[in-house]
Design brief:
Layout lengths: L11 H16 L1 H19 L10 E4 L3 H4 E3 L3 H8 L1 H21 L1 H11 L4 H12 L6 H12 L5 H8 L21 H13 L13
Antiparallel strand pairs: 1-2
Helix pairs in contact: 6-10, 7-10
């Protein structure tokens, strides 16, 4: 008599895998319990917000919200790609990333080696502290300082030379020799160099893109 096997019936291998999983969970449930809160954090603050990318395809209205706003498809992308400033922003993005790679990689290593050669401990600690300080200054503060210092009419960087009878062009209106114009990019490079040159420094800056 031929016996027909039931495809829905669990096999020995399946039972073995299920038993192993239950055994592992039973033995190490404390470790999995510790992972619960981090998993919830990443789920709520990393994965759920990814649904917000749909706003790029909508005519966002602050009163209607993301989901009730009108769907416009690729109209926003077409507007960006047709803009003359898009190619400037794209060029700046590639140029800044290239400069960050060329300058931001070797300079912190060289600076760390130079600091390591300093024999006066108090000067070494002071130099490390001064190099690390820019990472504690917010980009909002840096932007405000840049606007106040480089303002065309009231900025001290432009007003002082005029009062001293120096004939120079406004700093805020001058084009960069490399063709890249990004207020605060010097602070970005300086904080990157100082942070990476200090042992144990963490790279906390966020790079801009197009």
């Amino acid at each position: 008599m031929q016996v027909v096997s039931n495809p829905n019936r669990p096999t020995a291998a399946g039972k073995r895998r299920t038993g192993t999983f239950v055994k592992v969970m039973r033995n190490d449930w404390q470790l999995y319990a510790l992972m619960f809160l981090p998993l919830v954090y990443f789920l709520l603050f990393k994965y759920v917000p990814m649904a917000g990318v749909i706003v790029a395809f909508k005519e966002y209205n602050i009163f209607k919200g993301i989901w009730a706003s009108e769907w416009i498809g690729l109209a926003a992308f077409e507007e960006v790609f047709r803009s003359d400033r898009f190619w400037i922003a794209l060029r700046n993005t590639f140029m800044l990333n290239f400069l960050d790679l060329v300058v931001g990689f070797p300079v912190p290593i060289i600076l760390a080696l130079l600091l390591n050669e300093i024999r006066i401990k108090w000067f070494k600690r002071t130099a490390q502290t001064m190099l690390y300080l820019p990472h504690f200054i917010s980009w909002v503060v840096i932007s405000g300082m840049a606007i106040q210092l480089l303002a065309t009419n009231a900025g001290s960087v432009n007003v002082f030379p005029e009062q001293a009878r120096f004939r120079i062009h406004s700093v805020s209106q001058r084009s960069d020799p490399l063709g890249v114009h990004l207020p605060g990019s010097g602070h970005l490079a300086g904080s990157r160099v100082g942070n990476d040159s200090v042992p144990g420094g963490t790279d906390g800056h966020q790079q801009g893109s197009v």
